[in-house]
Amino acid sequence: SQTIHQWPATLVQPVGSPLSLECTVEGTSNPNLYWYRQAAGRGLQLLFYSVGIGQISSEVPQNLSASRPQDRQFILSSKKLLLSDSGFYLCAWSGGDDQPQHFGDGTRLSIL
Amino acid sequence: GNSVTQMEGPVTLSEEAFLTINCTYTATGYPSLFWYVQYPGEGLQLLLKATKADDKGSNKGFEATYRKETTSFHLEKGSVQVSDSAVYFCALSDRGGGFKTIFGAGTRLFVKA
Question: What is the pLDDT of residues B57-76, one digit of tens each?
Fold first, then answer.
């Protein structure tokens, strides 16, 4: 069966520091991969999605970037974090463009 | 473009009450429809889905019917439990939607014992 791993679960970072969040999927090949951010008590904001290695689509211009160095690995990065980057970050995968998405457990990021 | 509108929360019910969370959608194609549930501090989990008109998705006592004529996919449960307290998201995914799933804003449900 397929599983998705996302880490770390919780992260506290100072303003201006770099960020790297990692997500890996097991048990499937060539998944569509997604990064979302969820502000407290709010809905989901799609940040990036990828349909293949090295293929990244950005939905929201900001100081975050994403990379897909391997088929089942998706990384969210920033060179300098802002206070507004705080939130709950969720990685997800799907098997096709009309298939359900499967989410990781999320990373709660707090910026001090 | 595609969009999903769901009823605002929070919804507060007593245990064993009947639940309805309304969801309507706008889509240019023939979307698949989903309900996801998010428990506190966790990611979203797929609750149920329907892929074509008149399909009924069901899971854990929850049901939703894909109504093309009213462009709706309302979530229902006959008797809620305290453990159903969570945030529920309606969503659609369309072959013409560019690999993206459109999520509603979420509806928070509180169930009191």
Answer: 999 999 999 999 999 999 99
